[in-house]
């Protein structure tokens, strides 16, 4: 079948895109920028305002909060994130709803026509998907487009777009095979999304010095958590926020509900919108944060909490949230991780809240066996109650043994959470 055949299904397109480039991750902007130029994406505005979000942890929740807050203020929005949990369509949202197959297919057709025009250009799966999403967003030109940067920053496909506001959430060790283990170097790479003369929101007070240095070098206007904007606890489940607008004036919001996500990220989302020129309405902000739900981020389904955290920094946050909400029963951790992740660091971060563990094996070349995880857990003093060959098998075993007051944390990988989310949906159906 010809690659541009309109009758190609979404699944067929995704299968095709997985095969057209020799490697899955190929950092660099030359190829993707050339195709973007052919598509006219470098000469047209995607949206009235564009915000890009980079970082190690917290990108997805920050994007979701920016999107929800903007929608609550009546703005038409587009959001691009990755990876997805159950359906590729999750990666692109318009006004909070997943893009339909037809929109994605039209985007892939536009990318394919452009990359084969003149001298063919090879694109990775992620690059083709990013360009298709950008094309679909440009066709609609919403009030606000929020784009999550994938791996790194400077050389990520999303960085072909000049954003009005850049956001950097956190910097921690992850994807060491591609980004290395030097935090200053990782920070410099992620800081590559900054643009001269535009605001950059620094969503952590513990970023490497290289991030602020890059802002000074390129002339970006840096606004940092704890210095230029703040949040404060205001009793159980509430917080207040204060931040600066694009014109330098300060505003504050009181009695905001805790969305069940990192409040550093909530404060960062509010600051990003303020820096983009939005006047924040307190009632609208309360509504958006109260109703926000992000799949796979501290997502509670009965006794089960699902979170895609897969590095020690994210695991430490999860442990802290669970410690704040003690339960009368046992806390189980169902853990499945890939082989290139810091399993010992994650296990160590969760050890203080885990009463029992279920180790599971993930599928694929990068998988880590349940036996490997179990050995590491036991070496750290943990009790492994069961080893399962799949996340679903582990969930079935555990569900038959849960007491009414017990709870389960499912974490370690997007793949682990996706498997359990699908299993829970199957149970409900």
Give the CATH H-level superfamily of the largest domain.
Mur-like, catalytic domain
CATH classification class of the largest domain: Alpha Beta
Intertermini distance: 36 Å
Write the CATH fold name of the largest domain. UDP-N-acetylmuramoyl-L-alanine:D-glutamate ligase
Taking Cα atoms only, what radius of gyration do you get, to the nearest Å?
21 Å
Provide an overview of this structure.
There is one protein chain. This protein is of the alpha/beta class. It folds into 2 domains: 10-291, Mur-like, catalytic domain (UDP-N-acetylmuramoyl-L-alanine:D-glutamate ligase, 3-Layer(aba) Sandwich), CATH 3.40.1190.10; 299-428, Mur ligase, C-terminal domain (Protein-Tyrosine Phosphatase, Chain A, Alpha-Beta Complex). Helix content is 38%, strand content 18%. The protein contains 15 helices and 17 strands. Strands 4-3-2-5-1-6-7-8 form an 8-stranded mixed sheet, with helices on both faces. The protein has a 6-stranded mixed sheet with strand order 12-13-17-14-15-16, sandwiched between helices. A 3-stranded antiparallel sheet has the order 9-10-11, with helices on one face. A hairpin with a 5-residue loop joins strand 10 and strand 11 (250-257). Helix 3 crosses helix 9, helix 4 (101-116) crosses helix 5 (125-140) and helix 7 (183-190) runs parallel beside helix 8 (209-218). The longest helix is centred in the first third of the chain and has 16 residues, at 101-116. It is globular and about 60 Å long. The two termini are 36 Å apart.
